[in-house]
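Hi V.,

Quick status before I head out on leave. The structure for the redesign project is tokenized and pasted below; the design run finished overnight.
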């Protein structure tokens, strides 16, 4: 089933850089009314000026900020058709040493708990729309974890599982649930290890096309190869990721 993006009311979390910013720009160009949220006021101001989208400051791990975000969406967009849970945080951990508990907790909150809480807060608005969607940006590392990013990999695996469960529970509603599995993308988060990485705009265009085509799962670029390997041999997929 084909879906139109024109005139859709959209919220993109983590929308000041990387995939989030590129997607905000792409959706705006397709006629969407876009709001992005992020933590940096300076970055939000720059995005608002450059892209002409609405912005709101929000730490997606804060219950108070999420409540304020919902109020901003209701007040400025007057509804919501598309929620993109894109905000992410990836840290390296040496599990032989003592785990940095606070860093691991923050990483898990941003990558797993925050999308759940934001979705929970905004789902009533989405259910009121005739054709809505929740888009969760996961990772190929949910299939084959990167040894040096164990917490990120685990959190994204959890988000993938949550996405499947949410889709099942909303199957009889007007809200689609979409999982996006991007390839290694050239962003601030991947700086220093972005050989072969694609540009964020390439990922954003693929997401927009997938949404228009009604796809439930978008595995983009080189992530498709890893996904195919995983289906044949999970052990081989994990071997491919060893050392990443």
């Amino acid at each position: 089933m084909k879906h139109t993006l024109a005139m859709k009311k959209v919220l993109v979390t983590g929308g000041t850089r990387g995939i989030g910013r590129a997607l905000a720009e792409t959706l705006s160009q397709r006629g969407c009314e876009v709001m992005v949220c992020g933590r940096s006021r300076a970055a939000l101001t720059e995005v608002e000026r450059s892209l002409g989208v609405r912005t709101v400051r929000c730490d997606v791990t804060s219950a108070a900020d999420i409540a304020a975000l919902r109020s901003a969406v209701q007040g400025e967009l007057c509804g919501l058709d598309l929620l993109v849970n894109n905000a992410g945080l990836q840290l390296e951990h040496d599990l032989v040493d003592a785990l940095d508990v606070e860093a691991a907790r923050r990483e898990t909150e941003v990558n797993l708990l925050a999308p759940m809480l934001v979705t929970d807060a905004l789902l009533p608005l989405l259910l009121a729309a005739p054709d809505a969607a929740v888009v969760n940006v996961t990772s190929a590392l949910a299939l084959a974890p990167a040894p040096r990013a164990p917490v990120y990999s685990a959190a994204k695996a959890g988000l993938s599982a949550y996405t499947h469960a949410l889709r099942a529970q909303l199957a009889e509603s007007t809200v689609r649930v979409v999982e996006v599995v991007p390839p290694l993308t050239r962003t601030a988060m991947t700086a220093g290890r972005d050989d072969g990485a694609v540009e964020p705009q390439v990922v954003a265009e693929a997401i927009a096309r997938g949404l228009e085509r009604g796809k439930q799962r978008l595995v983009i670029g080189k992530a498709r190869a890893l996904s195919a390997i995983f289906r044949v041999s999970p052990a081989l997929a994990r071997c491919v990721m060893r050392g990443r």
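Above is the designed sequence. The first strand starts at residue 9 and ends at 13.

G. will cover questions while I'm gone.

Best,
W.
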